[in-house]
Amino acid sequence: MDFFHYQNGELYCEETRIADLAAQYGTPLYVYSKRTLLHHLTQIQQAFAAVDPVLCYSVKANSNLGILKVMNAAGSSFDVVSGGELYRVKQAGADTSKVVFAGVGKTDEEIAFALDNHVLMFNVESEAELDAIARVAASKGVVGPVALRLNPDIDAKTHAKTTTGKKGNKFGMDIERAEQLAEKVLADPRLSLRGIHMHLGSPILTTEPYAAAVVKAAEVVARFRARGHDTRWINLGGGFGINYRQQEAKPASAYADVIVPTVQQAGCRLALEPGRFIVGNAGVLISQVIFTKREGGKLFVIQDAAMNDLVRPAMYDAFHRIWPVQPRVPAPTNYEAEIPGCEPADVVGPVCESGDYLAKGRWLPPLERGELVCTFSAGAYGMAMASNYNSRPRACEVLVDGNQHTVVRRRETYADLVAHEM
Ligand code: LLP
Questions:
Q1: Least packed by Cβ within 10 Å: which of 125, 165, 355, 400?
Q2: Which residues are identified as catalytic?
Q3: Of 170, 237, 186, which Cα lies nearest the Cα of 210?
Q4: Which atom of ligand 1 is nearest to the CA of 241?
Q5: In what order do the strands lie in the sheet with 4-7?
Q6: What is the distance between the alpha carbons of residues 367 and 374, in angstroms, rounded to a whole number?
Q7: 149 Cβ below 6 A of ligand 1
């Protein structure tokens, strides 16, 4: 559930008219709903309450400080994958002792920064990284807290570019290597083994991969403990799917049902790293039609949001619902079927690439120059992956709270485009 809805023939975010925001701030414009963010976080908190998890909102999904501050105030912690993300969560006022630090390529500088900020644990992906953490920790006279990232070889059936828990991906290590490294940690006073980590892919629309993963995790924890490790944490990463099309996603409670009992039996603390589940449907991208044209037997709707604003369709063939902000035809429940009064169109942006589209062959009502269009489910991996390609200033971002709103990132200017160049 989210708080974007049509009322009196136009789109609202909570009690705020989207058309008013577009008039005030221009387009392309990202609009976020605070109520939706909190609703999704609460769903996970409640579903997993029995094991009192540490929820580490995955900053990579949407790293805007305005969003991080909402998450922090609501009791979420954070999953970071770079020094830059750690800097952001500090700016948001987070308690860094609950932050987990992931990623296959942490530099010495990033490791030092994380140790200085007493992060809860590093999700370690290789022996070389373990050595680096030990070395940097020793130079500071502290102990490096680590979780070994397992590659459980589970197929989570996600897009080839977002699957991470299968053999052959660059992430994690197999169980045999994790056991070897665990021995190494035991013998090394510069390190302590806090737990094990997994992340299976994203988005995952079924619970089975998690059910299989948590069992593997519990087995490994039991073996580590038998060898004398004080292994307390199981971190199952992120990846919970969301409704991009219709109601295809599972509620948080479905994931909890398969995860919680095994974590309880293992006597472990649970960490999770949800990103998309929290922010994906808490954000939309508003754009404006510049031109329409018919060519090659097709209708093209050319609007002012492009692959530099939202790269997911171009990069992962991702599906995002698209509908006018003030539609002449009521919004359908199924955006993939033929819609009466509508015509299939390619919704494209101004960037000079054929891959620059938000949708292909999408049923849409007639649209005219200046009309506002909404691309839904754009809160996760939208602005976070935006670029200045074609020297396009990045969009403005607005956070709505009821009938109030705050600009959480102003629109970039042409001067911003060259500000770092000498
Ligand atoms: N933890 C780790 C270790 C991850 O690699 C990721 C995402 C997450 C947590 C958060 O996953 P989430 O809960 O948001 O699904 N750009 C792609 C998604 C890439 C995901 C990368 N890792 C997209 O737009 O679909």
A1: 355
A2: 352
A3: 237
A4: 15
A5: 4-7, 10-13, 16-17
A6: 12
A7: no
100: part of which helix (H) or strand (E)? strand 100-101
Contact between 102 and 172 under an 8 Å Cβ cutoff? The reply is: no
List pLDDT tens digits, range 369-391.
Answer: 999 999 999 999 999 999 999 99
CA distance linking residue 351 with residue 93, whole number of Å: 37
In ligand 1, which atom is closest to the CA atom of 276?
A: 14
Mutate to test the pocket of ligand 1, among 58, 121, 171 (most ligand atoms within 8 A of CB): 58
Closest by CA to 265, choosing from 417, 11, 43, 50, is 50
Q: Is there a domain that residue 54 lies in?
A: no
Is 237 a pocket residue for ligand 1 (Cβ < 6 Å)?
yes
Q: Range of 312's domain?
A: 4-32+280-418
CA distance 101 to 122: 5
From the CA of 420, how far away is ligand 1's center (Å)? 29
**Measured distance CA(132)–CA(253) in Å, rounded:** 38
393-416 burial code (b ≥16 CB/10 A, e <16): bbbbbbbbbeeebeebbebbeeee
Distance 240 CA to ligand 1 centre (A): 9
Whether 339 contacts 347, CB under 8 Å: no
117 and 19 part of one domain: no
Residue range 248-270: mean pLDDT, rounded:
97
* Spatial separation of the C-alpha atoms in residues 24 and 13, rounded to whole Å: 15
> What per-residue confidence (pLDDT) applies to 215?
97
pLDDT 10s digits, 181-196: 999 999 999 999 999 9
> Among residues 109, 115, 117, 112, which one has the least CA distance to residue 91?
117
CATH of the domain at 401: 2.40.37.10
Question: Residue 211 pairs with which residues in a beta bridge?
Answer: none
Among the three residues 227, 246, 274, which one is the final residue of a domain in this structure?
A: 274
The structural domain count of the chain equals 2
